[in-house]
Amino acid sequence: MSDLDLLTQSLARNVRRWRTERGFTLDALAGRAGVSRGMLIQIEQARTNPSLGTVVKIGDALGVSIPTLLDHEQAATVRVVPAGEAVRLWHTEAGSYSRLLAGTEAPGPLEMWDWRLMPGEHSPSDPHPAGTVELVHVTAGELTITVDGTEYRVPAGASASFAADTAHTYANTGGVPMEMVMAVSVPPVR
Question: What pTM value is reported for the model?
């Protein structure tokens, strides 16, 4: 079974499991996540590989992290994610990417990401659920974050945090690659 097949099967099983555990019908989850009922059916039947944006919306609606949705192993007391197994969920031809390094439920989803943005590239994000917080630490280059229409510059060695329940964009307006580590904390679903 290929890595993509393994992820597709894991996503199908875990979306169905968490939807059932939360007591959501397909229609209820579709409404909460802002995705079609048909897309959820395809995901739960492992017949599609949804976009990263769709997986994030479903995770947010269920109140679970992306690693939890993609996890193909039973949760262990300590889970070590080898470097070669970090999941690259977004990339461009120029070399920009985001890799999901690790995640847990604590008590809501908590994720750690590794990002690289090449000069001139950007990545927009839809608002996350109310109470979501993102923390970034730039290790190379300079990050430009636009949050609710206002730009903030974060140079190498600096960190920033913000409420991520509004539209935001990560951009590299400089001339060298920008690298950062990001943590995302989403409140638990009630």
Answer: 0.62
Instruction: Report the interhelical angle of 26-33 vs 52-62 (nearest 10°).
Output: 110
Pairing of the two strands 97-105 and 122-125: unpaired
pLDDT in tens, 19-69: 998 899 999 999 999 999 999 999 999 999 888 889 989 998 998 888 788
How confident is the model over 104-126, as pLDDT tens digits?
666 778 888 999 999 999 999 98
Buried b (16+ CB within 10 A) or exposed e, 75-95: eeeeeeeeeeeebebeeeeee
Tokens of 75: 């949760």
The pair phi, psi for residue 67, each rounded to 5°, is -60, -35
What is the helix (H) or strand (E) element at residue 68, kind and residue range? Answer: helix 66-70
DSSP notation for 140-164: ESEEEEEETTEEEEEETT-EEEEE-
